[in-house]
Amino acid sequence: MLGQALFRFGQKLLRRRQLEHLVTEDVPCRRLNTLDLVALGVCSTVGAVIYVIAGEVARDKAGPSIVICFLVAGLTSVLMGLCYAEFGARVPHSGSAYLYSYVTIGELWAFITGWNLIFSYVAGTAIVVFAWSLAFDNLFGNQISQTLHENILLHVPQVLAEILGFCVVALVLLLIGLLTLRARESGLFTKVVTLVSLLVLSFVIISGFIKGDLHNWKLTEEDYVKAGLNDTSSLGPLGTGGFVPFGLNGILHGAATCLYAFIGFDNIVTRVEEAQNPQRSIPMGIVISLFISTLMYFGVSSALTLMVPYYQLQPGTPLPEVFHHIGWAPAYYVVAFGFFCSLSASLLGYMFPIRQLIYTMAKDGLLFSVLARIQTGTYIPIMATVIFGIIAAIMAFFFGLTDLLDFMSIGTRLAYSLVAFCVLILRYQPEVKKGGNEADVQDESGPAEEKLTLQGLLFPCSPTPTPLSGRVVYVCSSLLALLLTLLCLVLAQWPVLHSGTAVWISLVVLLLVLITGITGVIWRQPQSSSPLPFKVPALPLLPLLSVFVNVYLMMQMTAGTWAPIGFWMLIGFAIYFSYGIQYSLVAESHLR
After folding, report:
1. What is the pTM of this model?
2. Cβ distance 253 to 409 under 8 Å?
3. Where are the transmembrane segments (predicted)?
């Protein structure tokens, strides 16, 4: 009895949503072409983050080697973009990693993915709140913060004074967000904002080549001493000088944070139903927008660290401030204008996916139904927008900018890893005809009593996927996910490995052998031959490489970063096991 109960409980956690059950309501007009999607991807990716994150990473984590951090992050995001592109071609429905996980690996993982994405988007909105407050204050010479401290500080504690300042800005942003969300984002607005951002950032890059000094990439201890920053042989928080002042660990930590800079491309997938030719334009939009974003980030980070020594970068908005340093004061306002344009685009870029994802999960029964209520006439889930807008404002106060960046990076990295995992599994599954089910697949694919043998494992008889080969890939992929996670945990202890401890090295070798063997088993299984406009090349290596890089970079985060995410996940599990598992629409369809 206990075994049967556990089996039924496990089936509930892994129940999947069928593609043919995805019915689109109120299908919008298909008016977005490839250029519109590229503009949307670039607008969402090259947003306010470049004005903020570059200075934070260069000053505290990587120094001039931030250019390498952006290249590593860009390459990782391209790998993920390819996986998203295949899903966009395979599943022409508006969605995200949540939908893809639901279709492929089951309800529990779909909830985990969606809940993490909500946390990431809320953190992204909080970053916009944070950036607005800093930028607005800097634009007026920090007079706002000084006034708050001088006048309010006499009557309330300092912390409350800072809360008041952040809450004012957060409230304004929330109202702006609610007003702008009353209508669909205009394609023309997106194109204009993207063009302005690219022009301003191109101006920054050209300025870097004109006013930059290569010596800022070759700083030594003498330069720090001359600047009055260090008079000892240990440079401490300034690093060790040179192009890579914080070493390999600095590059890895910086790349893990810089991954946040590329988190906007998946917004393209949420507009599938508005694309004129989604099977073609979605993959092209994702890949082209990521390529443009990588070039812009590389150029801007190079210009920034060439114009100003990395240790002199100020927190907040270093990109406009750098023009005060080189004596181009009027350019400060040009770049600041571009910054505010990017903030406006970022607000739309985060608020739209948040409301869409929450509405979808609530409609699926995994979140409370009240979150799926829409405002009459505007079709906006007003309750979800207000609740999570308030959470974003709270996060903007209680956490620093670097913490918010790390939160968003971890949440999206986990979701992206699951998408790569889903691509790996789905490519090796037998086809399900429209209106069919898994039982029909089993009947059409051959004998129902397939037996697993070593020869059949390495040399499958069928040239097309069968239910048995699909289960083999599912189990092997799950084992690989576990082994890759263990490998990343071990590699995160790099100082111990570098010391040559035999136990750790033997463990790494054992894990690599197991990973190679299981990957070989997956490679021998037949793939689906269904024609698609785009398919991820080099399966199974490319999705596994994407999972490895994402997980390894997540392991670079500190325990303090993981703690709030763990608390968020506990809240999510409480909601799912007390509400979602009972009221899931997939569960109701299984009972019929």
Report:
1. 0.78
2. no
3. 35-53, 65-87, 108-132, 152-176, 188-210, 243-265, 286-311, 331-352, 379-401, 407-426, 472-496, 502-522, 534-553, 565-586
